[in-house]
Amino acid sequence: MSFLLPLIGLAAGLLLGAETLSPAEFLALITDPATPMSHLILEWRLPRVLAAGCVGALLALGGAVFQGVFRNPLAEPYLLGSAGGAAVGATVALLVVLPLPAALALPLLAFAGAWGATWLVLAMAKLAGRASIAALLLAGVAVAAVLAAVRSFLMLALSDETVSLQAVLSWALGGVQTPSWPELALLAALTGVAVGLCMMLARGLDLLGLGEGVAESFGLPVRRFVALAVLAAAFVVAISTVWGGLIGFVGLMAPHIARWRHGPLHRGLLPRAAAIGAGLTMLCDGLARAVLPPAEIPLGLVTALIGGPFFLLVLAREVRRG
Amino acid sequence: MAEVALAGSGLHFSAGGAKLLHGVSVGLTRGEVLGIIGPNGAGKSTLVHLLIGQLTPEAGQVALMGKPLHDWPRRARAALIGHLPQHFEPHWDYRVDELLRLGLDRAGRRAPGLADLAANFGLTAILARRWSTLSGGERARALSATVLAPDPPVVLADEPAAALDVGQAAALMARLRKLADEGAAVAVVVHDLNLAARWCDRLLLLEAGAAVMEGTPAEVLHAPALDRVFGMRFLRVALPGGGMVLAPGESEG
User: Fold this and answer.
1) Which residues does chain A have within 8 Å of residue B101's beta carbon, measured at their own beta carbons?
2) In this predicted structure, what is the pLDDT of residue A41?
3) Domain count within chain B
């Protein structure tokens, strides 16, 4: 069932847009590739929807790993500040002239930002005592606020005519740009690597779910594993942020839906969460293009509208559980 | 000569400036259940954590099958030592069969062993149930099955009976007894001295981080040191068929 969602999302993403098509219209267009509209769909909408799917899968994987490694059902890249860290890194890469090619600087700094921000949040939460669910979230909110301020400052202080402030801003609100086919191939390959990397963490995440003491006695080197998992999640979050900007709540929703349907074992949960995240993000991206034609609303806005109430629902459940 | 599977010698440990354990030596012998007894704060849990390698002693050493504990690869050690923790609350709502799979996986074994394991611990009917729906006794059995899935030759249990009613506690102790009879070396921290007397071969009495005495249940439970350590005069009631039960008497505190 979870694996059907990407197909539904793909279909919705292809049909929805400034000009929303009925399935019959879509089929007619596809069978006649000579028309400008079918060219638009295949060369513009299709790669964009696929890129949104990859970004959604990455967000879901990042969320699932963070939830597993921190054993916190409310953890996700956006709320934990790690996406904010990646955004600061990416902003620096976009606005500061660095002795590195931009294609390298952007992902590298995004990765460093995501990784640094996650450890900062973790350290702050531990300062407040045990890394409880509430402490981790509050530290995440604080760090995310500071990072957003830093990013805004950088944008105001460093942008000039050569860099469009609007481009940086629209990216910060969350949104997938239409990639070229080679760019899409690279994103798809990186997403594949991310899935593989996260699957290698599955057994450790399952053991961690039994508690650190039991995980340790079952042979898991807990501290080393946590460090490794945070590193992997930072990599995943950095790629999603470089391609999709700041998109909240997909990383929260997708793993939860997967866990409700499949249970908590990560070998099954991770690929399902990725599929759900991909489908959800493709659908939201379609809505972002279709709601106010010809304008496009930021993707992050659509996911927040859906994800915010979802977050409250999960929070209420956790509070009830104690 | 029975084989000592896990041995700690001259173990010292302190935390936060407080000396929690000084110079305790202990040996877990195959075929035997060792009961670790003593009042709260005597160092029982610290001793268990040193023996399973979750804490590292400041002085002294722990040897598993004659080889220093930390020289064993993690996974080999995990398959050799089963540790029943004092508290266990999984962070996710695992199903019973998922827990058992995680336990079996530790020994590199998979599903074929699952049915046997479930039957052995009386879990067959509740394999598909989630942790949050289990009763206290079912949880204890599911946890035991998970920890003991790879048939570890060494088993350490840290007050496993603390949250169980008297029948469930006895069932758990009987299970540990059976493991020892089948050749495992078992150590169990027990608060209930009558459970200790009934199921253990030897008792180690700890007080303020030091070993006071070690011996058979009859020796230790009759010793005046027991009354001194617990700060009360026990009533020792002989049973018709031999053996005895302890009842709390007058407090000396």
Assistant:
1) 265
2) 86
3) 1
